[in-house]
Amino acid sequence: MAVRIPLWAVLAVCAGGLAFGRVWGQGEDPKKPDEPLTLTEYPYLPGRYGQPYIPSVAEWQALRLTSLGASTTRLTDQFSRQHLTCFPDRKGLILTLDLLPEPGWKGYANGKWTLPPDRVKADLQKAVDATMSLVRAFFPEVADKNVTVQLYLKSERIGTWQEGALTLTAEKPASK
């Protein structure tokens, strides 16, 4: 003989069981709600590292771009990218581009430019353009005015590309 139980009765029993379990289980939980979370995988870290974090789409894209920029990649005939980092900010994207000159490029030595600034800027602009094409793959809607690129050469700061203009900060070659 089959017994039919109404669906509402089954749902009521399930809900009642959950409520009873919560009330019954309150006395058994040794943790107080005010205690910080502890990480079982990383016991050396404070509890705040156990808090959930959901990155924004911009943060996620910046992380992806930074991870791809972590390896040395040839950008132009004159430069390879040593690394690239990207940080979204309220005013725009902030990138750090560290370049390695190729052996044939002799435009910089001992903190000074050995080539005319116009030639150096043209060569660096090609590297920035190649980098911006990678950035556009992750942030196609971001305008140049919202991107700042801090330029480094062998980890030494040499300039800034901002709003489409390149400014060199390293010393200019001595006049002959």
What do these coordinates show?
This protein is α+β, with helices and mostly antiparallel strands and 176 residues long. Helix content is 30%, strand content 24%. It has a domain at 57-168. The chain has a six-stranded mixed β-sheet. The longest helix has 22 residues, at 117-138. It is elongated. The mean pLDDT is 82.
Features:
176 residues; alpha+beta; two-stranded antiparallel sheet; 24% strand
How would you summarize what this structure contains?
This protein is α+β, with helices and mostly antiparallel strands and 176 residues long. Helix content is 30%, strand content 24%. It has a domain at 57-168.
Count helical runs: 3
Assembly type: single chain
DSSP strand (E) fraction? 15-25%
Distance between the termini: 108 Å
Q: Give the integer mean of the pLDDT values.
A: 82
| Main sheet overview | 6 strands, mixed
The percentage helix is 25-40%
Number of strands: 8
Q: Which regions have little confidence, pLDDT < 50, spanning 5+ residues?
A: none
Q: Can you tell me the overall shape?
A: elongated
> Radius of gyration over alpha carbons?
28 Å
Structural class: alpha+beta
Sequence of strands across the biggest β-sheet: 1-2-3-6-7-8
Q: Give the SSE string.
A: HHEEEEEHEEE
